[in-house]
Model the fold of this input.
Amino acid sequence: YQRRVRGILEKAIKEPHLFVLKPQREGGGNNYYGEDIRTKLQEMDRTERAAFILMSKIEPKPFSALLCRQSKLYQVFNASSELGIYSWFLSDAEGDIRLNSYGGFLLRTKITGQESGLVAGFGALDSPYLID
Done:
């Protein structure tokens, strides 16, 4: 396990453009990208790293979106959507699974290319529209 973690950290330091380093909190902001990831990972110890999540960077294809407020067109912008699927998992000390269940979803549409979050005012809750 430790060897695998070390390999991932080495890859993130060597190719930081492939990753996003996020603090374990909601609301957007305070993320690290590019060379800032390399610097941050090199200066943090194991305990400090535990407060962050290192994620592979996803580059979705942007689309044109309309933001409406109070039934009026407010803004047209390039956007990307993020689908969060929530669940809960509970196991006991022996590793026996006690609960593993779906908890719901949340679709967020955000302005492309910005450090963004709904709480920061750079996006909106959305509803999926599934097509065949």
User: Anything to note?
Assistant: The CA atoms of residues 94 and 100 lie 16 Å apart. The longest strand covers residues 72-91. The mean pLDDT is 86. The helical segments are 2-14, 35-43, 46-49.
